[in-house]
């Protein structure tokens, strides 16, 4: 698989690694599509509805649960090689539907410049669209 991993979302993450207050990078990220792995136990009816996104929740040892999302198939395969299905979702749309409980969002976990946001950060920082 030969793919370009230098997507606008990836560039925004790289910029945010240098300056977490970079509003242009936050805007780009909020408007970018991300790959959301489809959980193995997801309800098939829910996965067919384009308005509903089943969130894959990973338990962190000693930390809050996280939802991993990815900027490319390469990033997804590097962290979750057994995942065979995903949905392409605008990151801002996730923010508008984010659950209220303490659930963090991790963008490209395991990459050189991952970004993890608390549930409040998801709703406030990414709801920029």
Automatic annotation (TrEMBL):
Superkingdom to which the source organism belongs: Bacteria
Q: Which InterPro entries match?
A: SseB_N
Chain ranges of the SseB protein N-terminal domain? 10-123
Q: What is this protein called?
A: SseB family protein
Name its species: Streptomyces hintoniae
């Amino acid at each position: 698989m030969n793919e370009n991993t230098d997507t606008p979302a990836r560039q925004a993450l790289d910029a945010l690694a240098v300056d977490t207050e970079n509003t242009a990078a936050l805007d780009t990220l909020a408007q970018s599509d991300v790959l959301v792995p489809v959980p193995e136990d997801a309800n098939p009816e829910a996965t067919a509805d384009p308005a509903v996104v089943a969130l894959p929740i990973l338990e962190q040892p000693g930390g809050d649960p996280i939802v991993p999302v990815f900027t490319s198939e390469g990033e997804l395969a590097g962290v979750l090689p057994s995942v065979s299905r995903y949905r392409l979702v605008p990151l801002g749309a996730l923010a508008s539907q984010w659950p209220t409980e303490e659930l963090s969002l991790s963008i490209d976990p395991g990459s050189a410049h991952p970004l993890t946001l608390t549930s409040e950060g998801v709703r406030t920082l990414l709801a920029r669209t």
